């Protein structure tokens, strides 16, 4: 039996089910501590496997294209946050203060790795450059995102100063990634052969963080603050941000003289935001009561960017070169 076209992918359905489970059966007390510990282990394992999987040769092949990488980084860490601040008068009437904080946090996150590369490949763009740009964005985001959060928001950060928060994130995300790169020599082929394992850890760790985040926030009355109208507002905001960044990055790439393959890589790498990196970072950076509201805009944006980029990649692939 064929899957209905209107039905979301399995991971999106799993995220929806996780939010419902956390809303109906939230974890408290000792159970919350156990889930938090399991989540930390799962996230560290995720970044270890990503380190073991990432090909150094592919990164080196694209690393010399510095103009492209600089433009992607500027779109990710400068254009997005600027839009989040400039559009504040339009955004704040649509959402609560905690949700606007989540939108700002979304704007400060690094790009995705897997989907940026996959969509660039599907659209017949510059794949080596996309691998390098997306990977660099993720690694630099471990340091840049906490600093931006400290500078641009007044949120109470769990780790204290941006520097302390960056150190916490580096210990939880960067250190396992480096260990994975070191271990790639021995386990890289095995990890490549067992890609479903990486996908299972990837999705499983995100679902664990989503469950613990929403469990904590439900106890603080999250769903009394978020109405259907607010959710519709979040979707409109996500669509606006995505359309603006895609349009601006495409025009900048064209005006700066990049060829078609490079423009494709710039649009897909510069307009995406990482759920896999963002959810663990949010858990380190933000206080428990606001965590669910901070993560919610990212979850909606993640699904929207996948749907839009899938359609756009098809159109690029069908164009005459």
How would you describe this structure to a colleague?
Keywords: Membrane, Transmembrane, Transmembrane helix. The protein is mostly helical and 321 residues long. 81% of the residues lie in helices and 0% in strands. It has one domain: Na+/H+ antiporter like fold. The protein is built from 15 helices and no strands. α6 crosses α15 and α9 (162-193) packs antiparallel against α14 (275-285).
Which structural traits does this protein have?
321 residues, mainly alpha, Na+/H+ antiporter like fold, Put_Na-Bile_cotransptr, membrane
Distance between the termini: 37 Å
CATH architecture call? Up-down Bundle
Radius of gyration: 19 Å
How many independent structural domains?
1
Seen as an oligomer or otherwise, the chain set is single chain
Q: Look at the structure and give the mean pLDDT.
A: 80
GO cellular component, one term: plasma membrane
Keywords: Membrane, Transmembrane, Transmembrane helix
InterPro entries: Na+/solute_symporter_sf, Put_Na-Bile_cotransptr
Pfam family, one: SBF_like
